[in-house]
Design brief:
heterodimer, A: 677 residues, Rossmann fold, 4 domains, 7-stranded mixed β-sheet, 6-stranded mixed β-sheet, 23 helices, extended, B: 168 residues, mainly alpha, 8% strand
């Protein structure tokens, strides 16, 4: 009897998305163990849409995303035809080769909502239940984080090398269930809450109840803020990557068009110059504001009058405190009269009308500054302020000129890239600002109640926690729970270190086979993957000193090794599985997959990815591969249809798409040959 | 009151946005894509100073009791103190406004100066002098906000233009 649960996807159906409206069946022959499927699509037909729709079928989006996030997903995946009001995607899968399941995700394009229907067991098409229902035994394991890794877009493999995202630790915690220890911590917290609640009843402390409410409110807020930060960090990574890709693509186009590049360079130079002029003008204007006399004659005269008055009255002419003291202490006044108590009192009362030495020291520089002021500065200040608008206009003209030159390339793609670059930068900036200036803001007592500063919220929570514990006689219990939680955290850290060490060892064993020429090994997977050479020398630099291909191969090995650990055989679906890999890497990855993977594998590949990869898999698996090719009938070219006819593919089965099964058609299907009228 | 403060809110007047919010719209931000990347305003005290200038020029002062406020810094910043001498100028302007109505009474002027200055404090003001200075700065801020329809300025040029108008 098998001691694991196994899920195998047996097919899916699209209707009303960017993809063609077709059904895809995946053969599952028990005897042949056909675990591998290569699903081929041309670029832009819906590979990544397929990956995402499959992901969304395995967990309920409504429970994990906000309304606006769901709306964004709907907009991203919806059909380009505005007359289509909804989309349906159904995935079929088997649990332990026996029970059939169907999950249908329905996108309502009018109400901007997502709904689910589920069918479990062998009841066929009838008997769909509203809502998302997964096999009970698997619900605990199949989390969004798990699905995101098992249904993986290899183009995002670089994230595993990014320290800020902490992706490796996060992945290990989720996939190896280390984070379940947090549930014990939560139970301890719940126990404490119950204890305090019980004690509160005895104490009849109304104020305590209010503090508890506030404590819960801050905890909830902190959880929301941390979740937001997590999403923002993910988004930041994706946007940075998108920005790099845009820049790379723009540079490529610019290189192809040197004349435009020169124009762009010149306008960029002018733009930089005008921007610098504006910056200097602002500095100059503020410098004038720092000397109010330079602003206008009215203020200047106010200063001059003030100085003249001080001069006329010989202010500051200071008299030291000691002078008055000596006078009062003396037997006679300086006029020769006997010093009486009344005279002493008068001197003490009136000495305030004389400036002290200290005050004179302040007035001196003020008078000097007024004296040294150059009246010519006034005209300069006036001109400077008037020039600001002119300089702003010049900067704006230079900016427009820059956009005009980049738009005049007659290259729609370049223009779109420029617009995307601008939009992406803005989006990235907003996210970075929030993370740096709000989320990571140091503790500030004056922060509002709904602050999103992690440090301030933590401080408030800790203070309230201590106060509540003290008032409800739960100090001892609180200390014990804190100790236990600290131990649990320690256990998590130790587990993470041990598991990480084992993963590094396992991956490095495979590296020898997969990277026979380069010999690059994983040095550490703490927060991110870092690499080392055969001699143990740590690789440095943003890419870890490895090529894209090397990084992708290591990332692949890391995921495969990690996914083989849980007692669950869940499909491993990879979008663009060998993108960026050279022929050696493709062959070796194919060999690794065929030998290491025990679960179902579905590769969503571009036609150009077949080379070296598909043939190697074919050889390693003795031909036990499902080959599927899908393309769009409406937008395609006659050669594609003719090829399908030649291979006896039923081109009329679906209205706007074609699905072809079999190795021969799969290998014959080559975009560059077929996309010609 | 011995330190510099920003307005958080004005009692019974929701139109007055906090100086912090205003500051966020004008402070120098290197990463910014609008004019803030060219902003000459680097320290919060720069905004306090601008408002003080406006308050003194327009002789607009509002008692600090009408506001909720939060501390921003203890002393004058290097930018306003050292090279520019802005601190000396603004103190001169402050005193000239305070003594304005006592033109012919030397002893009263000396008393006002003694009461408001204090060389032992790094900011050169006594506690009551500091409070009075805040009254002018807060008054100037409300005046500036009024000029901007109670919204933060869209650009630094708009801000400079409004400051220039209020001072002339």
């Amino acid at each position: 009897m098998q001691n694991y649960d196994e899920i195998k996807i047996t097919g899916w159906t699209y209707k009303g998305f960017k993809t063609p409206d077709v059904s895809v069946n995946i053969e599952d022959k028990q005897d042949k163990k056909t675990n591998f499927t290569l699903f081929q699509m041309l670029s832009g037909i819906g590979k990544t849409t397929t990956l995402n729709l499959l992901r969304y079928c395995f967990y309920d989006l409504n429970k994990h995303l906000s309304k606006s996030e769901i709306q964004n997903i709907i907009e991203e995946l919806r059909s380009r035809d505005p007359n289509i009001d909804h989309g349906e995607f159904e995935v079929q899968f088997k649990l332990n080769s026996t029970i059939n399941y169907r999950i249908k995700i329905i996108f309502d394009y009018i109400l901007k909502e997502i709904n689910y229907e589920s069918n479990s067991g062998d009841s066929g098409d009838k008997g769909y239940f509203p809502g998302h229902k997964m096999p009970d035994t698997l619900q605990r394991f199949i989390t969004p984080e798990f699905v995101e890794k098992t249904f993986f877009d290899l183009r995002l493999a670089n994230k595993l090398y990014n320290a800020e995202s902490g992706e490796t630790d996060r992945t290990i915690r989720k996939l190896c269930k280390i984070d379940y220890l947090e549930e014990i911590s939560n139970s301890l917290e719940k126990y404490k809450i119950q204890f305090i609640k019980k004690n509160r009843g005895k104490l009849r402390d109304k104020d305590l109840k209010d503090k508890e409410k506030l404590f819960e409110k801050y905890k909830k807020l902190l959880a929301q803020v941390e979740e937001k930060a997590k999403k923002f960090k993910d988004k930041k990574y994706k946007l940075s990557k998108k920005l790099d890709e845009i820049k790379e693509e723009k540079t490529k186009i610019e290189n192809d068009r040197r004349d435009i590049q020169n124009k762009i360079r010149n306008t960029q130079k002018t733009l930089d110059e005008k921007n610098e002029n504006l910056r200097l003008a602002f500095e100059e204007a503020y410098d004038y504001l720092k000397n109010p006399m330079s602003i206008n004659y009215e203020i200047l005269n106010q200063f001059i009058n003030f100085k003249e008055k001080l001069d006329a009255w010989q202010i500051p002419k200071s008299v030291g405190e000691s002078f008055f003291q000596q006078l009062v202490d003396g037997e006679k006044c300086i006029c020769g009269h006997e010093m009486t108590d009344k005279m002493k009192k008068t001197i003490n009362d009136n000495k305030i009308f004389y400036l002290s030495d200290d005050i004179a020291n302040i007035l001196g520089p003020i008078k000097t500054a007024v004296y040294n002021f150059d009246k010519k500065d006034q005209n300069k200040a006036k001109n400077c302020f008037e020039d600001l608008i002119k300089k702003e206009r010049e900067s704006s003209i230079a900016q427009n000129e820059f956009y005009k030159v980049t738009s005049a390339t007659d290259d729609e793609k370049y223009n779109q890239l420029t617009k995307d670059e601008h939009d992406t930068k803005n989006e990235l900036k907003n996210i970075t600002d929030w993370l740096d200036e709000t989320y990571e803001k140091p503790f500030t007592p004056d922060e509002p109640h709904d602050t999103e500063s992690k440090k301030t919220l933590n401080k408030r929570i800790n203070n309230l926690e201590k106060e509540i514990e003290e008032r409800s006689d739960a100090v001892e219990l609180g200390d014990k729970i804190r100790k236990l939680k600290s131990l649990l955290e320690e256990v998590q850290e130790i587990s993470l270190v041990k598991i990480s060490k084992k993963i590094v060892e396992d991956v490095n064993k495979e590296v020898k086979r997969v990277l026979p020429l380069e010999k690059i090994y994983i040095d550490s997977i703490k927060n991110r993957i870092t690499l080392k050479t055969d001699e143990g020398i740590r690789k440095t630099g943003a890419s870890g000193g490895a090529s894209r291909g090397q990084m992708a191969r290591i990332a692949y090995l890391f995921l495969i090794t990690l996914l083989n650990r849980p007692n669950l055989k869940f499909p491993f679906i990879v979008d663009s599985p060998v993108t960026d890999l050279d022929s050696i890497g493709r062959e070796e990855i194919a060999r690794s997959l065929s030998k290491i993977l025990e679960c179902q594998y579905i590769g969503l590949i571009l036609d150009e990815e077949k080379s070296s990869f598909a043939e190697t898999l074919e050889n390693e698996l003795n031909g036990n591969i499902n080959y599927i090719t899908a393309f769009n009938k409406d937008e395609t070219y006659p050669k594609m249809i003719n090829l399908a006819k030649e291979y006896n593919v039923d081109i009329n089965k679906f209205n706007n798409g074609v699905v072809a099964y079999g190795k021969d058609f799969f290998y014959k299907f080559k975009g560059s040959d077929l996309v010609k009228k | 009151m011995i330190r510099f403060h920003f307005i958080i809110k004005k009692n019974n007047d929701d139109k007055i946005i906090s100086m912090e919010k205003f500051w966020e719209s004008i402070e120098f931000k290197n990463k910014d894509f609008n004019q803030q990347r060219f902003s000459p305003f680097k320290d919060k005290l720069d905004l306090f100073y601008i408002c003080l200038l406006i308050g003194l020029k327009t002789e607009n002062k509002i008692p600090v009791e009408q506001f909720e406020y939060a501390q921003i810094t203890d002393t004058w910043t290097i930018n306003l103190k050292n090279k520019s001498k802005a601190r000396d100028f603004i103190l001169g302007m402050f005193l000239s406004v305070l003594v304005k109505d006592n033109n012919n009474d030397k002893s009263k002027i000396q008393k006002i100066i003694n009461n408001n200055l204090d060389n032992n404090n790094d900011n050169k003001l006594s506690e009551s002098g500091m409070k009075k200075m805040h009254e002018y700065s807060f008054g100037g801020y409300c005046k500036l906000l009024n000029e901007l329809d109670y919204e933060p300025p869209g650009t630094i040029v708009v801000l400079m233009d409004k400051i220039n108008k209020l001072l002339n």
